[in-house]
Amino acid sequence: MQATEDAIRSVVHEVLSQLNNRGGYGSASSTAHQNGDWGVFNCVDQAVAAATEGQKQLLNASLEDRAKALEIVRQICDTQADELGRLELEETKIGRLDHKIEKLHLIKDIPGMEFMKTESVSGDNGVSLTEFAPFGVIGAITPVTHSLPTLACNFINMVASGNTLVVNPHPGGAKVACEGVRRFNKAIYQATGLQNLVTILENPTLETADEIFNHRGIPLLCVTGGPGVARAALGAKKRAIVAGPGNPPVVVDETADLDNAAKSIIIGAAYDNNLLCIGEKEVFAVDSIFNELMSAMGRHGGYQLNSQQVAQLTALAFSPPKEPGGHAVLNRDLIGKDASVLAGMIGVSVPAGTELLYGETDTNNPFVPEEQMMPFVPFVRCRNADHGIELAKEFEHGFRHTSMIHSRNIEVITKMGRIMDTTLFVQNGPCGAALGNGGEGYASFSIATPTGEGVTNPLTFTRFRRSTTVGHLRII
């Protein structure tokens, strides 16, 4: 690095201040960028061509300028989180404003160029260096659940390693994603002269996604979304990094700290109204502590539905499968709605501040096997910890995404970790702890489970290159 982080932040702050003083971003008075509207295009070929040229500029730029670009994205997300979070909620109409804003603040902690370290081996036969090279232009698909945060996270990871990206956002979150791209590109250009480090389709469709999947100018895909788009990416004739679906279970055994378990389940499952792919979706609690755990949930901000109310909510949330043995059909109008809204739909008035609904079900209730994304969590009784782990394994469906346990028995914890084999495994905390939110480790909005990369970081989007000098350059 040619400049300190403090110096880079100072430059970025000055540029952002100047741009804000000129009337902000995306206003009618702003002059459109010569290559699209500051990275926003209506044609895949044009978006790829602009990102290709942007990647050439990036490779010829200094590492200092690359670091400035990353810092600009972090600061825009952090300092403009209130405005951008509100824009996202107004457009998508799912989730919670406070968590939309918090997710944008979290972008400042996404890892960047600190991951880009050359590895070396020195011996009798000379010196060998392993460096991490970019793929080029990456095609990215982003979800409606975290539209701008996922885009910003991908930007930092991908640009840190020398790539640029072309984004096909979910149509339900395309406006805020495009607004973010305009702000990023304009500020980066003002600070560094670099152009189109990210481009985006203004009117994304399944057809534009397919064009990106099959475009000869895109050697790598990164897809974050549901089962359909994950399957499409895995069928593409190029390498794909796929953040696919999950249905994270929680096991609570008789040794658990039940207040901590209840508090953790509510923190995780209520986050952005349970839109997180890592969020607690169903709980398997041993019978001996079941009733006590249900009481603890009520003490920490949950509201328990009785069996009749659970049946009413289930009937609203799901329709019967279209074919025998198929999946129940999720009512997407309920996704991401507040707990009070869901309760009101079945005639229940909940106390102010209620974050999560919960209730007892059996495993036949579709809330258990289906990855519903709403603030209701089903609780299922199990005989013992082994039975709970068995059910967790069954209803996680082999996605190997995320699982959680609340237990003080190290043998039970170890057994579940081995049996579940999930990418993220959290013990005695909320799901977010796996991504540095209350636990150790770095964050990402793309958890690549089907393709095995796990929590993505800048190295995820690199090619390993080795340079070997034979017989020389070892100076010891």
TrEMBL record:
Transmembrane segments: none annotated. Its EC number is 1.2.1.76. Residues 43-297 form the Aldehyde dehydrogenase domain. It is an enzyme of class 1 (oxidoreductase). One of its GO terms (molecular function) is acetaldehyde dehydrogenase (acetylating) activity. The keyword NAD applies. InterPro entries: Acetald_propionald_DH-rel, Ald_DH/histidinol_DH, Ald_DH_C, Ald_DH_N, Aldehyde_DH_dom. Pfam families: Aldedh. Keywords: NAD, Oxidoreductase. PANTHER family: ALDEHYDE DEHYDROGENASE-RELATED (PTHR11699). This is Succinate-semialdehyde dehydrogenase (Acetylating). It comes from Gimesia aquarii.
